[in-house]
Specification:
Layout (H helix, E strand, L loop, with lengths): L5 E4 L2 E4 L14 E6 L2 E6 L4 H10 L15 H6 L26
Antiparallel strand pairs: 1-2, 3-4
Length: 104
């Protein structure tokens, strides 16, 4: 069984996932739960059909903002506005660490 170690990252605790256990898709959202001494990390499961149905059924005048990456075509089609953002300049590039209230 591969071993890893928890470490501090900013105000959070982090764990490196060993290469042989790493997820192929680096953009995967993960859920994390604790059961006694066992911490379980698993891919987040979302039902896109339910999300799209809720968006289509929303009342007039209700604005919904959905953020994230790699939106599925069904979600894009159900949206009124879709924007892609790209960094032109980012303070991380100058060595500034994540700041509470800005990045988290």
């Amino acid at each position: 069984m591969p071993l890893t170690r928890a470490f501090k990252s900013g105000n959070s605790q982090a764990v490196r996932i060993p290469a042989e256990l790493a997820y192929e898709d680096m953009n995967v959202d993960l859920t994390i739960s604790r059961h006694g001494d066992v911490i379980v990390i698993a891919p987040a499961r979302r039902n896109l059909t339910e999300v799209v149905a809720a968006l289509r059924a929303r009342r007039d005048g209700l604005h919904v903002v959905v953020t994230g990456r790699n939106a599925k075509p069904e979600l894009i089609e159900a949206a009124d506005l879709v924007t892609e953002m790209s960094a032109v300049k980012h303070h991380f590039d100058a060595g500034v660490r994540a700041q509470e209230g800005v990045e988290f």
